[in-house]
Write a structure and sequence with these properties.
By secondary structure, the chain is of the alpha/beta class. It has two domains: about 230 residues, Aspartate Aminotransferase, domain 2 (3-Layer(aba) Sandwich), CATH 3.40.640; about 120 residues, Aspartate Aminotransferase, domain 1 (Alpha-Beta Complex). About 40% of the residues lie in helices and about 15% in strands.
């Protein structure tokens, strides 16, 4: 039987709850912001443990808005990892600032602290660092916070893939000035359309972002700042409130699926062929990304797809090789880890609802490929 990369329809009981919540919003007549959004924000602060949470229109806007709020200007420098989803770099360039790319450390493929330190020493107008908690694993928070403080730059956590992840027993999202999160449907905490949110412990910063979410408007037709339309729809908030109640269960299911893969890869004698994700404090497994021999990665993808098994490559083109960033003039030799990861990464299904039988099929198909 085919095995999908992700299936968002398997939890029919939860879908029925979401449908009921959506009907409640439709009948209320309040469709943008309002009580559903406010309740979601309160519940997010309780779950994540920050003082404030601000619902937003997308995970991308959850990175763009705080950059606007701290006053990033054309020519300013924002340092960020070279290996991530495009939004991490795109929001910087949209403001006319210069994205400064840093290579990854080899274990989790998160931003490398030493390379970050070296990059900041070379910057002349560095204003912020965006650290990405990639695939659900936390970057080295203590090291990155220390470096940012030493260079007097803001730290923003890109936590789009890291809901449920813990670092030294603490939820992510409150270690820097703020964190940006995504609730795109395929995320562990996914809605029924685009959405995102921001968390922070800085009350003054939160209040500014809250105004900027709605065109900087303090009262009707009086605008304190130039913001944007970054508001969340009430229907999204209602659906997410249902999803949030199951967040711990979702995290544990994904972690169990990861443990199952480790056993299956061991039983199939594939641990010499593939490097599996490394465990840390609490990896939330937004993705289960293994690394395989470069020459075999694309043929393995083709083989799995021929067998009806979903898989994906995150991310095949690091930022320094993106056409839109050619003007920055980067040399690929400066990013050996990113280059290697982009050519060896292979993501397998890990979603909640994935069955053990399906995982057996996934690993069996890979074993057949390797041993053919």
């Amino acid at each position: 039987m085919p095995v999908p990369m992700i299936d968002l329809t398997r939890n029919q009981a939860q879908l029925a709850e979401i449908e009921s919540a959506v009907v409640r919003v439709v009948r209320s007549g309040g469709y943008v912001l309002g009580p559903e959004v406010e309740n979601l924000e309160t519940e997010l602060t309780q779950y994540i443990g920050t003082k404030h949470a601000l619902s937003l229109s997308s995970g991308t806007d959850a990175l763009l808005l705080p950059l606007m709020a701290i006053g990033i200007q054309p020519g300013d420098e924002v340092v960020l990892p070279n290996y991530s989803f495009f939004a991490t770099a795109g929001v910087v360039a949209r403001l006319g600032a210069k994205p400064v790319f840093v290579d990854s450390e080899p274990t989790f493929k998160n931003i490398d602290p030493q390379r970050l330190e070296d990059a900041l020493k070379k910057c002349t107008r560095a204003k912020a660092v965006i650290g990405v908690h990639l695939f659900g694993s936390a970057f080295d928070v203590d090291a990155i916070v220390k470096i940012c403080r030493a260079h007097s730059v803001h730290l923003m956590e890109d936590a789009a893939q890291a809901i449920g992840t813990k670092y030294q027993g603490r939820m992510l999202g409150g270690h820097g000035l703020c964190a940006g999160w995504s609730t795109f449907p395929t995320k562990n905490f996914g809605g029924i359309g685009d959405g995102g949110f921001l968390t922070t412990n800085d009350t003054e910063f939160f209040e500014k972002c809250k105004l900027m979410r709605n065109h900087g408007m303090a009262e009707q037709y009086l605008h304190n700042y130039i913001g944007g339309n970054f508001r969340m729809d009430a229907i999204q908030a209602a659906a997410l409130r249902v999803k949030l109640r199951a967040m711990e269960e979702v995290t544990e299911i994904r972690r169990q699926n990861a443990a199952n893969y480790r056993e299956l890869f061991d039983e199939a004698d594939l641990l010499d062929w593939a490097t599996l994700p490394t465990e840390m404090d609490r990896h939330a497994y937004h993705q289960f990304v293994l690394h395989v021999p470069q020459a075999q990665r694309d043929p393995a993808v083709a083989h799995l797809r021929q067998q009806g098994i979903g898989c994906a490559v995150y991310y095949p083109v690091p930022f320094h090789r993106q056409p839109c960033f050619e003007y920055l003039g980067y040399d690929g030799k400066d990013f050996p880890v990113s280059e290697d990861a982009s050519r060896t990464a292979l993501a397998l299904p890990i979603f909640q609802g994935l069955t053990q039988a399906e995982q057996i099929d996934v690993v069996g198909a890979l074993a057949k490929f390797v041993k053919q």
